[in-house]
């Protein structure tokens, strides 16, 4: 007798279920997607003990007929696709027909459903894959699905679940995600009988406020951008309101909640130096794109998708966020309190025209040399320099209040942009080392250096082979300053060895920031008036002058209203 045998159908279903149903949140996700595909406008979810004891989802969607009920729990049964062409034109969240069969294989499942045009509904029970009789019942229009004792027959899977609180939080995040993507649907979520979350089929901002609170909602700015048939919509937070974690980032493609490296990379690249430290922006973004331009069938849980043109997706997200940051309030500090500050103060005005072109400045000569005149498309505005505080902060009077400038952060930003432009223009200036540095490499490193030697030369590192697995470094990019060339090159080689796609860009960015920081005017450095005026003029000529490379503000503006509030003249 041969050793190869056909697996039992029950075992096959349990294996398949293991790919689709990882934990209680997976069940909730699949059932919510089915409800949305059924056109539900109201979805109610009840959770007990983190979903391990029970999960119930009730919707008011189109419902199922008596004939459809037993078929719906079989593997690969679906109303979504008929031909192979349909698979590449998916417009629904579900399509494989695996959800209900996978859930039924690892739980006690009860489905009660009634079509809108039917006088009564029907109910079916499945226990660990075994179907019972279909019963007629009186019930509401739509579908109610109860999942009890998840993984009761697969104890090894149950062992790997986290605590009930952790599983509950994952379920909550799923509901939040689909509430954000479907603001025309009312969601209710109950945990152990207590209502924890509810949204109305209302506008987007009301939904966001009900989920995250009004304070977060007030800090969001709307994103709208179109590029070659790709539409980007949603919200991002002002950089000053970035969070310590990525927990407030929700990405959707055609309404599907997904994870995608290209989109995430574009979000952070667009923010550039606006984020301070390890902060993360709030992002609720949806990409609308032709279904033919994506593949949603590459991951068992459909959590990841593949774009035909990743570069165009990156450009769309990057340019869309950049445009939003330029056209909205991106300043740090108290000067952001007024809703239409850009309209009132042309000095900070952004638009489609680059900042340095939109604002032109002149320095007045003679007796008014301490006043810097800024001309914009709307009006002229004078900033009178009043002085400096503790040799660190420049104070200027504006028509609206006062402006405080951190001289170190401001100069740091000016130098950063200078060095960055040098690299972007491929006009990297090299400095000769007084004494060549000898680099010893392993065989793998030697091969990597030889493969990358031209690229390293473009970056300013001139390397010559000096013997077996030995190289001589003769030049270093001037922008890198007085660094330890051997240590830096070894670090570069190590990262190249790990195959990091962004290594060179990452190192260039880090070194520019370090060099600009070390070279900039320091706090307490004494500046003459001419130097102060030059500093302010160079700063305001930048495309984005408001934050230093580390994300700290270069300037803070207090309006007259802010000052009156501080002195309790107004409330």
Description:
A hairpin with a 2-residue loop joins strand 4 (121-127) and strand 5 (130-131). Helix content is 35%, strand content 25%. Strands 1, 2, 3, 4, 5, 6, 7, 8 and 9 form a nine-stranded mixed sheet that branches. Strands 17-18-19-20-21-25 form a six-stranded antiparallel sheet. Residues 331-381 have low confidence and may be disordered.
The residue fraction in helices comes out at 25-40%
Distance between the termini: 89 Å
Shape: globular
CATH fold-level name of the largest domain: formyl-coa transferase, domain 3
Gyration radius over CA: 30 Å
Number of domains: 3
Q: How would you sum up the major sheet?
A: 9 strands, mixed
* CATH architecture verdict of the largest domain: 2-Layer Sandwich
Helix/sheet category: alpha+beta
What is the CATH superfamily label of the largest domain? MutL, C-terminal domain, dimerisation subdomain
Low-confidence stretches: 331-381
Q: What's the number of extended β-strand segments? A: 25
CATH class of the largest domain: Alpha Beta
- Provide mean pLDDT, rounded: 76
Share in β-strands = 25-35%
């Amino acid at each position: 007798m041969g050793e190869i045998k056909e697996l039992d159908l029950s075992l096959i279903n349990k294996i398949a279920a293991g790919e689709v149903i990882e934990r209680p949140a997976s069940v909730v996700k699949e059932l919510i997607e089915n409800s949305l595909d059924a056109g539900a406008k109201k979805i109610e979810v009840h959770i007990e003990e983190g979903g391990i004891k029970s999960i119930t989802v009730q919707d008011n969607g189109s419902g199922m007929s008596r004939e459809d009920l037993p078929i719906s729990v079989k593997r690969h049964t679906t109303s979504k696709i008929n031909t192979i062409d349909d698979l590449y034109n998916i417009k629904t969240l579900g399509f494989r027909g695996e959800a209900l069969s996978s859930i039924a294989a690892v739980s006690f499942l009860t489905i009660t459903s009634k079509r809108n045009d039917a006088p009564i509904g029907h109910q079916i029970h499945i226990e660990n894959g075994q179907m019972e009789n279909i019963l007629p019942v009186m019930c509401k229009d739509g579908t109610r699905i109860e999942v009890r004792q998840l993984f009761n027959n697969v104890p090894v899977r149950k062992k790997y679940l986290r605590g009930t609180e952790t599983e509950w939080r994952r379920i909550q995040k799923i509901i939040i995600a689909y509430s954000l993507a479907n603001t025309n649907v009312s969601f209710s979520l109950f945990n152990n009988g207590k209502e924890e979350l509810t949204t109305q089929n209302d506008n987007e901002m009301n939904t966001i406020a009900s989920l995250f609170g009004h304070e977060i909602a007030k800090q969001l700015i709307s994103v709208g951008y179109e590029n070659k048939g790709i539409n980007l919509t949603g919200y991002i937070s002002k950089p000053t309101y970035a969070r310590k974690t990525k927990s407030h980032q929700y990405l959707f493609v055609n309404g599907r909640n997904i994870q995608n490296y290209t989109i995430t990379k574009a979000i952070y690249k667009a923010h550039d130096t606006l984020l301070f430290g390890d902060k993360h922006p709030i992002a609720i973004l949806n990409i609308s794109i032709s279904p033919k331009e994506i593949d949603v069938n590459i991951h068992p849980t459909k959590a990841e998708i593949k774009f035909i043109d990743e570069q165009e997706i990156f450009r769309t997200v990057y340019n869309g966020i950049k445009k939003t940051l330029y056209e909205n309030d991106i300043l740090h500090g108290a000067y952001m309190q007024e809703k239409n500050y850009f309209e009132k103060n042309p000095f900070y005005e952004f638009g489609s025209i680059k900042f340095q072109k939109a604002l032109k400045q002149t320095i007045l000569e003679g007796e008014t040399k301490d006043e810097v005149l800024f001309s914009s498309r709307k009006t002229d505005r004078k900033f009178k320099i009043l002085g400096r505080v503790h040799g660190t902060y420049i104070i200027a009077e504006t028509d609206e209040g006062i402006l405080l400038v951190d001289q170190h952060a401001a100069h740091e930003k000016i130098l950063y942009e200078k060095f960055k432009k040098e690299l972007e223009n491929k006009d990297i200036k090299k400095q000769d080392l007084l004494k060549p540095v000898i680099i010893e490499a392993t065989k793998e490193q030697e091969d990597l250096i030889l493969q990358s030697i031209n690229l390293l030369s473009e970056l300013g590192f001139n390397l010559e082979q000096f013997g077996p697995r030995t190289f001589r470094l003769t030049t270093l990019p001037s922008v890198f300053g007085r660094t330890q060339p051997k240590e830096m090159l070894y670090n570069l080689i190590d990262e190249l060895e790990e195959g990091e796609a962004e290594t060179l860009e990452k190192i260039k960015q880090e070194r520019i920031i370090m060099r600009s920081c070390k070279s900039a005017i320091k706090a307490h450095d004494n500046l003459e008036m001419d130097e102060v005026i030059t500093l302010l003029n160079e700063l305001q000529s930048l495309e984005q002058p408001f934050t230093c490379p580390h994300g700290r503000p270069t300037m803070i503006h207090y309006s007259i209203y802010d000052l009156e509030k501080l002195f309790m003249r107004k409330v």
